[in-house]
Design a protein that fits this description.
Elements: H1 15-22, H2 29-41, H3 43-59, H4 63-91, H5 93-110, H6 114-124
Helix pairs in contact: 1-3, 2-3
């Protein structure tokens, strides 16, 4: 856990940099050595590395294989959610099609009889005198 009162200094690398170092992703050997030297003298950053290591061991019983399994699970979850989202949209398709179909049927039934309505209207409404 991070110790209270031992905040980062201006010389401290970013938390992301420390996390990458802890995971073994230092860009160069020199960078790896500089970060290790900094960790020996900075209680805040050393505590951060301890927190990251503890979290990693909590998440993955075997960190070497756990990361691969976790990555696969993330991809599978993303794929499943994406497919569910697509299925949810198609579920509403019949509900959207019903009003459109009803409107089309109404138009097809009314349009052929419009000329009859005009004739009826002409017969019922007397012609205006000019």
């Amino acid at each position: 856990m991070t110790r209270p009162g031992s905040g980062p200094t201006i010389a401290c690398p970013s938390s992301l940099h420390i996390a990458r170092w802890e995971a073994g992703f230092a860009d160069t050997d020199e960078e790896h050595q500089q970060t290790a030297a900094h960790l020996r003298g900075c209680g805040h950053c050393a505590a951060l590395v301890g927190d990251i290591s503890e979290a990693r061991s909590d998440l993955f019983q075997n960190p070497a294989t756990g990361a691969g399994i976790a990555a696969r699970q993330i991809v599978e979850t993303f794929t499943r959610r994406r497919q569910e989202r697509r299925r949810r949209w198609f579920r509403f398709l019949p509900m959207m099609a019903a009003p459109i179909l009803a409107g089309a049927v109404a138009v097809l039934l009314v349009v052929p009889h419009l000329h009859q309505w005009e004739a009826w209207e002409a017969a019922m409404i007397p012609a205006k005198a000019v």
